[in-house]
Amino acid sequence: MLGRWMLDFWRGYVVVSLHGPHVPELINRATLQGIMLWEIRRLPNGACSLRMHRDDVRQLVTLLKQTGTKIRFERKHGVPFLIWRAWRRKFFLAGALTFCIALFALTSMIWNVEVQGDLKRLSPETIEQAASELGLHRGTWIGHLPDTDILQNQMLDKLPELSIVNVKIHGTKVSIEAVEKVALVTPAPTEPQNIVAKTTASIKQIFAHRGKPLVRTGETVHAGQVLISGSLGEGKKAVHAAGVIRGEVWYTSEISVPLETVQKTYTGNYVEKQFLTFWDYPVQIWGYGELQYELHEEESTDKELSIGDFIFPVKYRNNIYREVEMKKITLTQEQAVATGLELARADVATKMGKSGTITHQKVLHAETKGGKLEIKILNKVEEEIGVPQRFDPAPPPDPNAQPPSGAAS
Amino acid sequence: MLEVPKDSLLNMPRITLIGGMTVNVENFRGILEFRDDLLRLSLTQGELNVHGRELVIKTIFPTEVVIEGNIRGIQYID
Questions:
Q1: How many Cβ atoms sit within 10 Å of the Cβ of residue A92?
Q2: CB atoms closer than 10 angstroms to residue A229
Q3: What is the interface pTM, i.e. ipTM, of the complex?
Q4: Would you list which residues of chain B are within 8 Å, Cβ to Cβ, of chain A?
Q5: Are B57 and A38 an interchain contact pair (Cβ–Cβ within 8 Å)?
Q6: CA dihedral over A209, A214, A220, A226, signed as positive or negative
Q7: CB–CB of A340/A259 below 8 Å?
Q8: Residue A342 to residues A27, A249, A356, A368: CA-CA distances in angstroms?
């Protein structure tokens, strides 16, 4: 019975009411012609209500004329009518479909990658970078990702500093929990070494942690001179000498400072223009008008719109035009010297070690030549001068060694 | 003589009554009159009157009809 109803629903059927004196005759003829009728009942107003298939209505029309019966369609049921109704609302349906597709698409890609865990040696950015190389980044289709345990193993291969990686995908969010390996304690180095001077200097401080200091405070040492010896007891024992030795080192800088310079300054005035660029072709959308500035600098920032790896060819571009003024500056002798000292400090900073400090600066010679101040400056710097140098210790006398002569028996 | 059912041999009408609700008529010739309380069917010989209330023709085929409703009586007229 249900199967029958489903079949009727698929074909589509109508509920009609018939008015007229010859309705039983009409029903007889229709039945003989093979038209299926069902649920025939009398209505209180004398009309007759019945159900028939949609595609049989055409055949019935001639019979209606012959019997002089009037027909009224009451209700329409079935798939063909549903399709027809849907077609009338096709734009609404298209919208609904678009919404469903968009919802499906947006929920089946990754939007967030979150790194958790107490990380000391690796930065979360490093882990994010590694994850991104494996495909765990915004815009990836979740369906295209391998299993999380495969991802975890790949992460561990990429980052050997990690001991555990836990990758979880919650909807559109990926959370990566990482645990670092405990760092191994590196054993103290034992190979024999001396501490030697890297440059000529006068010793200011000396702290020997291990080894025998060979110099004193105030002494002048030359490059390569041993400061702390790792050889103890006249070569009987060799140790890994270590210590801090600070000395005063002299650096001379020869600097030439131009007395007249042209300086570029911003006046603070600027004009903004906005563009939309279509495949590198800019179309201005805002900020019309001629630039009034004699000199200007252009600063351009582009904003791109992208979904996953796809970048839209349409970009938003904001240009800022800043007014620029060129100013001529003439330095006095004092100002030029001050500039020279400043430049010398920067020059020395690149030469000396990190631990160094400039203690004193002295102008040795200054001369104006062709609009420039030629200046020679002595910089006194206190810095760490010791560098390690390995040495091969003399082999200690072997207590078990046989005397070279008369031992063989 | 061979015992053959008469209805299958001579196109005789066969009327099945299920409870007081459904009448199944085979080998009929058409509807003569259809009212809420009376249904007159034409047979090969004579006619059949079905009395009742809220009579509904459930399905109708060229030689068979199924009637439902509160059936009060069936009258066979030769």
A1: 10
A2: 19
A3: 0.87
A4: 30-36, 54-62
A5: yes
A6: negative
A7: no
A8: 115, 19, 16, 18
